[in-house]
Amino acid sequence: MFDRVLGLPAHPLFIHAAVVLVPLLALAGILYVVWPGSRRHIRWPLIALAVAAPGAVFFAKESGEAFSESPNFAAGPIQERIEQHEDLANTLFLVVLGLAIVALVMAFMVNVTAGSVSLIKAPVVVHWVVVVAVVALGAAAFYYVFRAGDTGAHMVWEGF
Known about the structure:
Structural class: mainly alpha
Mean pLDDT: 85
Low-confidence stretches: none
Distance between the termini: 25 Å
Radius of gyration: 18 Å
Number of strands: 4
Shape: elongated
Number of helices: 4
Strand order of the largest sheet: 1-2
Strand content: 5-15%
């Protein structure tokens, strides 16, 4: 399932969704927690991104694993580079999954009405823990999507 799409290798196709959706999720999550005035406008896009981004990373990761099982990559120094790329992708998936969870918690922890934005009976400490988690995981998501993409791009453009 993760090997080919319409006869083309799936990995180069799926990574584009992850490269776009992960930074958008991180940006929307950070914006949501640091600027209360934005919450009314970006709540539903944040929820959609929190569902879509982990799925995109999962598809990119699984298609990459299927791609790396090709006989062309069986041995040699390329295998070490592929393992480094896979390790970064695995970490990225966990970071994005964590970011999505805390972003969803924040989205449903805040009561957004036409006239106001307020916390829904959550202790202030819980609110600040979620804020810090969103900012930290958002920054980590930016870092790991860049590092995973950079290692993959170097393999492609430097001829493995």
